[in-house]
């Protein structure tokens, strides 16, 4: 230990630490300055950017010893006297912070730029901030915010704080946005009791092996700071978890058998330095490796070992939809096209790795954790500990990005188990490699499809078979195999469809939920075939889609006749002028250009059912008025950066008739909020929004009942009272005279409940899987360097039917972020277990990769949605890759059939095509 | 916790290196990424206080770049125009955070096949200056790095500077990097090129180096010989052929296939030559 004295945010500071400890960890853990975030500990993400003597550096790579006598500034030091800087305010107004985990790094990098130049250009902004990764925003709103401060972009379009009843549809910033800008927001790794022990999982280096764990006496003797080594036999309840109540096939700690590289085998608990010092090979675990089944072919091969004894052939399950006679329809079609398409594992790459802590409180356990789904976490921890659900409390922190990856549990059962046994608080923070190697991914898919149409452009039939690699455990594999066949033909009216999926176990990272649940993979397939059919019949690709877009009154392949809110045709129509102009410009460019850089424009159209597939999917919201007049929304809907805290407040406020800025919000905590379901399947705006609206309306009805007032009465909330004005008659409800009750101690309360109306699917996939669908169409303008195979996306125009936009600022944020992830899926993202387990080998888009994005919001109201709203979160990602691939085709004549279209693959395809047509 | 020393004089650093094996840290940008998820418990020599190694000096027939000069330091330095290849490479190292911390000596000592600085330094004919208890020695950079993560630096030696000889006349240079995204990207292929102009307007000397296509960045001597004496112009690009890439031995990896790397290397070499052929 060395005493290191330096200046921190202008104040003399001294700390006694190891001089080689990373500055980021010193700031966060030793000094409590948790505004500086750690995303990778390797200089790949920039979340930990601070100033060292006035210049931006990654605090994760600065030895503490180097800051002696120097100046450090962190995000906490930006605001002066509690007043945010112009940069912080611009971030707030432009919605440049979604989840907020990268925001401190972004702000510091931008502040560094303004030290050097007052009016930076867009290129200078990109270069200055290019060292920070963001997974939520798609970067463009960050660029706009910085350029606004530079005086180059006008102020963000915002509505003033809306009056009572006018919140829905208004553009305004996040209700919880300010704390994301000054370091106050608390994420999973930001807080734990000072006496908390640390837990580190020991993970399998093998894809497939049996193992035994020997006695740990020697390890304990060598490391006195090691308190306990937990193994499978220490799990008091069921040593298995999984997202479905009936499937708990993934062990918390492997029991003699590991099925993927990165699987947890043991958990070391002790002081931080001890558990981080012990090397895995010091722990007496003896592995006997076995043939690894990598890829679905090896898992399906004759003689392959079974990953799970009850799953012959390593097949988890099949999904199926059949309507009409697809083979006959294809036989009769004028044109039939077919192809096989492949996609890779894709990593969520949220900048916040999994983290949390637990403590035992008597016979209960409390887990404070970053998550997308507090109530599922609660029930999962309970069954692992063998205690009642109500004996577990989940206290979610802010979630630094989820995208589906934080729907499965990670640290939760580990810290809960350790805290339960030791009766001491226990915390765990995954490091980046651990996060990437042990948590779920997007399913790799191999899909073969045939699509047919008449020569005048009417779709006639479609067949599809897709293998989805679900990795070592079920996770969300059953959802993917069901969702894909329903959506596989795309957002079109197709008279005859047969679509089948197969989810296959392999010795690879479990594949789970990732924004779209398999639909983005399927969209690559159906949209490529749509392009080919359009070309074969000589029809414009956009017009072909418009002609076939499913419309109200037409049945889906599941036999569900759409009753309302099917806005695809309108989305395509809105794109039409952009499309024609961009296609013509690309053709002109290619005619006159040097032939090396060639341009193209593609279109992608998609649909996506909101909410769980033919399953109960309810949400409950609660509101209450306290004796002092405070009105609170108790929302269990977890905000993961998309703005749910804001939109739920808007909907509830309008339901009640109160100005949204008067509404207090309590979110997430399972002891304080009702079950609003998980943040997944684009369901929160639609389902929880429906519950929040009803909660507001029911609270209003209760107040009106107390005042014996009519439906049109006005409410005014005052300290200790509600004034009800009913056609000139004023009445005051004295809240202090009412009895407090209910779970939150309010004097008036109400709940709202909504469960979207669905119906079960039969064995042919016929029924009503979703109550509503969102639709989207995007066009992508690309430029291909045909000599290098590199693809630069120049512009995206995205038209989305969202039913009703609850807050256009937040909806645009979703679209921008989804486009960026779709671009990554299309061009660069490929997770390979054991090889791309960090953020420099696994590439996600950076500042310079995401182009200008123009958004068009189409509002075809959904009658069952709150104020007409439906979901948008996943739709945004599905259309982008197909649009980019269509653009590559116009530019080069090459059809992309394998994602990502990395430079080597694009170049190889260009060369192969040249050989075919010399 | 292990031993930690942060000396302020090179002699002190050299003495410590002579006494025990020490892990060396300066900018930390390679040191820490190799230690994710664990406590650093090695014995460490921290060079960051050696102010004398942060200087860039004009030493008459060569420019001497102190070992601790950062990428940002290089970008900001007032250097002759023919240094452009190294300045362009410096802008491609990580983000600005990394450019502010990472050092030029760290880049060569880490000896990654994809080190952004190495092709440019090789094209500039750089030599490495090493100090030890026994004195100093100089090694051409092409002989200093001998393999993936391997150099000829002895455990008791410290890299103190990079020496770059001045060209005899007018020289131009460039650097091209190919990656799968815009920022923060490990190169698939890099090309650094320097052309010295003879008095008669022909190529006096050419040095072309390719990175990420072999365990160590490679010069292309056959191409360099073929370029010598040619009139400087866009047609220089046409001189390069696949045959000239013979020193390269790329592998298939997550960033690209072997065939793709060779194909892209030729394209980039031609583009670099076209650029330098038309540079004024």
Summarize this entry quickly:
The complex is a heterodimer of chains A (about 900) and B (about 280). Chain A has about 900 residues and is of the alpha+beta class. Helices cover about 30% and strands about 25% of the residues of chain A.
- Based on the structure given, which CATH architecture of the largest domain in chain B is correct? 2-Layer Sandwich
For the biggest β-sheet of chain A, the strand order reads 8-10-6-17-14-15-16
Radius of gyration of chain B, CA atoms, in whole angstroms: 19 Å
Output the structural class of chain B. alpha+beta
Main pleated-sheet profile of chain B: 5 strands, antiparallel
> Low-confidence segments of chain A, ≥5 residues, pLDDT <50?
none
Cα(first) to Cα(last) distance of chain A is 70 Å
Total count of domains of chain A: 5
**Class by SSE composition of chain A:** alpha+beta
Q: Main beta sheet of chain A, described?
A: 7 strands, mixed
List keywords for this structure.
heterodimer, A: 918 residues, alpha+beta, Ubiquitin-like (UB roll), DNA polymerase, domain 1, Aldehyde Oxidoreductase, domain 4, 5 domains, seven-stranded mixed β-sheet, 31 strands, 23% strand, globular, B: 280 residues, Uridine Diphospho-n-acetylenolpyruvylglucosamine Reductase, domain 3, Enolase-like, domain 1, 2 domains, five-stranded antiparallel β-sheet, four-stranded antiparallel β-sheet
Report what the structure shows.
The complex is a heterodimer of chains A (918) and B (280). Chain A is of the alpha+beta class. Chain A folds into five domains: 2-74, Ubiquitin-like (UB roll) (Roll), CATH 3.10.20; 86-175, [2Fe-2S]-binding domain (DNA polymerase, domain 1, Orthogonal Bundle); 197-291 and 350-438, Aldehyde oxidase/xanthine dehydrogenase, molybdopterin binding domain (Aldehyde Oxidoreductase, domain 4); 445-612 and 763-916, 2-Layer Sandwich (Aldehyde Oxidoreductase, domain 4); 619-754, Aldehyde oxidase/xanthine dehydrogenase, molybdopterin binding domain (Aldehyde Oxidoreductase, domain 4, 2-Layer Sandwich), CATH 3.30.365.10. Chain A has 22 helices and 31 strands. In chain A, the strands form seven sheets. Chain A has a seven-stranded mixed sheet. Chain A has a five-stranded mixed sheet with strand order 2-1-5-3-4, sandwiched between helices. In chain A, strands 12-20-19-18-13 form a five-stranded mixed sheet, sandwiched between helices. In chain A, α10 links the parallel β15 (364-369) and β16. In chain A, α14 runs parallel beside α21 (880-892). The longest helix of chain A has 25 residues, at 568-592. Chain A is globular. Chain B has 280 residues and is of the alpha+beta class. Chain B is built from ten helices and 14 strands. Chain B has helices spanning 10-19, 71-76, 84-91, 96-101, 104-110, 117-123, 141-144, 221-227, 236-239, 258-278; strands spanning 4-5, 23-25, 44-46, 56-58, 62-66, 127-132, 135-140, 145-147, 150-151, 158-165, 171-178, 189-197, 203-211, 218-219. In chain B, the strands form four sheets. In chain B, strands 4-5-10-6-7 form a five-stranded antiparallel sheet. Chain B has a four-stranded antiparallel sheet with strand order 11-12-13-14, with helices on both faces. A three-stranded parallel sheet of chain B has the order 1-3-2, with helices on one face. In chain B, α3 (84-91) runs antiparallel to α6. The radius of gyration of chain B is 19 Å and the shape is globular.
């Amino acid at each position: 230990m060395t005493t290191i004295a330096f200046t921190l945010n202008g104040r003399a500071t001294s700390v006694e630490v190891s001089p080689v400890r990373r500055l980021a960890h010193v700031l966060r853990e030793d000094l409590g300055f948790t505004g500086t975030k750690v995303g990778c500990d390797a200089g790949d993400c920039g979340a930990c950017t601070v100033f060292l003597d006035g210049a931006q550096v990654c605090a994760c790579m600065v030895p503490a010893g180097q800051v002696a006598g120097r100046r450090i500034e962190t995000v906490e030091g930006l605001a002066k006297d509690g007043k945010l800087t112009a940069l912080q305010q611009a971030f707030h107004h432009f919605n440049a912070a979604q989840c907020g985990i990268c925001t401190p790094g972004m702000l510091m990098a931008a502040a560094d730029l303004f030290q050097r130049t007052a009016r930076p250009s867009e290129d200078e902004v990109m270069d200055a901030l290019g060292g920070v990764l963001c997974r939520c925003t798609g970067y463009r709103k960050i660029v706009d915010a910085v350029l606004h401060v530079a005086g180059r972009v006008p102020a963000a379009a915002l509505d003033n704080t809306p009056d009572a009843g006018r919140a829905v549809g208004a553009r305004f910033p996040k209700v919880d946005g300010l704390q994301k800008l000054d370091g106050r927001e608390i994420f999973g790794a930001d807080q734990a009791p000072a006496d908390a022990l640390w837990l580190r999982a020991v993970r399998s280096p093998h894809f497939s092996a049996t193992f035994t764990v020997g006695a740990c006496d020697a390890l304990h003797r060598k490391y006195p700071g090691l308190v306990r080594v937990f193994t499978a036999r220490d799990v008091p309840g069921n040593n298995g978890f999984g997202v479905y109540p009936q499937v708990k096939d993934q062990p918390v700690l492997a029991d003699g058998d590991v099925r993927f590289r990165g699987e947890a085998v043991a958990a070391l608990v002790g002081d931080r330095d001890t558990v981080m010092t012990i090397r895995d090979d010091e722990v007496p675990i003896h592995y006997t490796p076995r043939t690894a089944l990598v890829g679905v072919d090896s898992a399906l091969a004759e003689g392959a070992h079974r990953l799970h004894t009850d799953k012959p052939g390593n097949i988890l399950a099949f999904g199926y939809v059949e309507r009409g006679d697809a083979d006959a329809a294809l036989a009769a079609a004028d044109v039939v096209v077919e192809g096989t398409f492949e996609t890779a594992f894709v990593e969520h790459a949220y900048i916040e790795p999994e983290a949390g802590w637990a403590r035992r409180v008597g016979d209960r356990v409390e887990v404070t954790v970053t998550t997308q789904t507090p109530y599922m976490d609660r029930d999962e921890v309970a069954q692992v500990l063998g205690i009642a659900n109500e004996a577990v409390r989940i206290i979610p922190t802010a979630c630094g990005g989820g995208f589906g990856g934080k729907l499965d549990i990670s640290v939760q059962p580990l810290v809960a188990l350790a805290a339960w046994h030791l009766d001491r608080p226990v915390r765990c923070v995954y490091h980046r490699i651990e996060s990437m190697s042990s948590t779920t991914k997007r399913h790799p898919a191999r899909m073969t499809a045939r699509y047919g149409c008449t020569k005048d452009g009417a779709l006639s039939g479609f067949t599809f078979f897709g293998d989805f690699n679900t990795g070592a455990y079920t996770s969300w594999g059953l959802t993917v195999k069901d969702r894909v066949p329903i959506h596989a033909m795309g957002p079109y009216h197709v008279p005859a469809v047969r679509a089948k999926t197969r989810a296959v176990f392999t010795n690879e990272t479990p594949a789970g939920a990732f924004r779209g649940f398999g639909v983005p993979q399927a969209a690559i397939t159906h949209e490529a075939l749509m392009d080919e059919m359009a070309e074969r019949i000589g029809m414009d690709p956009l017009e072909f889609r418009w002609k076939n877009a499913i419309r109200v009154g037409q049945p889906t392949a599941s036999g569900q006749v759409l009753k309302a809110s099917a806005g695809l045709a309108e989305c395509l129509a809105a794109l039409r002028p952009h499309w024609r102009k961009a296609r013509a410009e690309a053709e002109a460019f290619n005619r006159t250009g040097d032939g090396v850089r060639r341009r193209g424009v593609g279109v992608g159209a998609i649909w996506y059912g909101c909410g769980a597939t033919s399953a109960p999917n309810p949400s409950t919201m609660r509101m209450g008025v306290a004796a002092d007049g405070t009105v609170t929304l108790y929302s269990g809907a977890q905000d993961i950066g998309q703005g749910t805290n804001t939109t739920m407040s808007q909907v509830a406020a309008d339901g009640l008739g109160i100005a949204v800025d008067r509404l207090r919000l309590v979110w997430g905590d399972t002891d304080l909020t009702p079950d609003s379901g998980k943040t997944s399947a684009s369901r929160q705006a639609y389902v929880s929004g429906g519950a929040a609206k009803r909660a507001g309306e029911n609270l209003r009805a209760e107040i009106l009942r107390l005042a014996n007032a009519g439906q049109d009465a006005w409410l005014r909330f005052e300290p200790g009272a509600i004034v009800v004005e009913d056609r000139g008659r004023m009445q005051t409800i004295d809240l202090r005279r009412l009895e407090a009750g209910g779970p939150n101690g309010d004097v008036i309360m109400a709940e709202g409940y909504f469960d979207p109306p669905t119906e079960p699917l039969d064995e042919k996939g016929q029924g009503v899987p979703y109550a509503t669908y969102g639709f989207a169409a995007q066009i992508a303008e690309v430029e291909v360097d045909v000599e290098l195979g590199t693809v630069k996306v120049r512009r995206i125009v995205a038209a989305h039917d969202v039913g009703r936009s609850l807050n256009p600022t937040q909806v645009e944020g979703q679209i921008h972020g989804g486009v960026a992830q779709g671009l990554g899926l299309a061009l660069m993202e490929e997770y390979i277990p054991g090889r791309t387990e960090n953020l420099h080998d696994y590439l996600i888009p950076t500042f310079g990769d995401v182009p200008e994005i123009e958004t068009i919001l189409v509002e075809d109201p959904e009658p069952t949605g709150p104020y007409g709203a439906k979901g948008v979160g996943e739709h945004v990602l599905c259309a982008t890759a197909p649009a980019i691939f269509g653009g590559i085709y116009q530019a080069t004549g090459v059809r992309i059939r394998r994602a990502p279209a990395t430079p080597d693959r694009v170049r190889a395809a260009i060369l192969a095509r040249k050989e075919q047509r010399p | 916790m292990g031993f930690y020393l942060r000396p302020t004089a090179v002699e002190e650093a050299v003495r410590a290196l002579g006494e025990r094996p020490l892990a060396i840290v300066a900018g930390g940008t390679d040191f820490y990424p190799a230690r994710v998820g664990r406590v650093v418990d090695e014995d460490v020599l921290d060079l960051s206080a050696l102010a004398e190694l942060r200087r860039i000096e004009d030493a008459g027939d060569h420019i001497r770049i102190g070992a601790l000069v950062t990428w940002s330091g290089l970008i900001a330095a007032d250097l002759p125009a023919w240094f452009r290849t190294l300045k362009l490479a410096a802008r491609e190292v990580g983000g600005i955070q990394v450019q502010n911390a990472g050092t030029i000596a760290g880049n060569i000592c880490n000896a990654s096949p994809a080190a952004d600085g190495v092709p440019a330094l090789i094209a500039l004919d750089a030599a490495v200056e090493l100090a030890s208890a026994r004195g100093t020695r100089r090694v051409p950079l092409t002989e200093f790095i001998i393999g993936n993560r391997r150099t000829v630096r002895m455990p008791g030696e410290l890299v103190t500077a990079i020496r770059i000889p001045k060209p005899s006349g007018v020289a131009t240079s460039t650097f091209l990097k190919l990656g799968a995204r815009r920022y923060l990207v490990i190169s698939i292929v890099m090309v650094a090129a320097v052309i010295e102009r003879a008095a008669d307007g022909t190529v006096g000397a050419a040095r072309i180096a390719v990175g990420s296509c072999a365990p160590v960045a490679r010069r292309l001597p056959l191409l360099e010989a073929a370029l010598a004496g040619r009139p400087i112009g866009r047609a220089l690009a046409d001189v390069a052929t696949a045959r000239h890439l013979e020193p390269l031995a790329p592998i298939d990896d997550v960033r690209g296939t072997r065939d793709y790397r060779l194909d892209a290397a030729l394209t980039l070499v031609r583009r670099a030559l076209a650029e330098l052929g038309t540079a004024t």
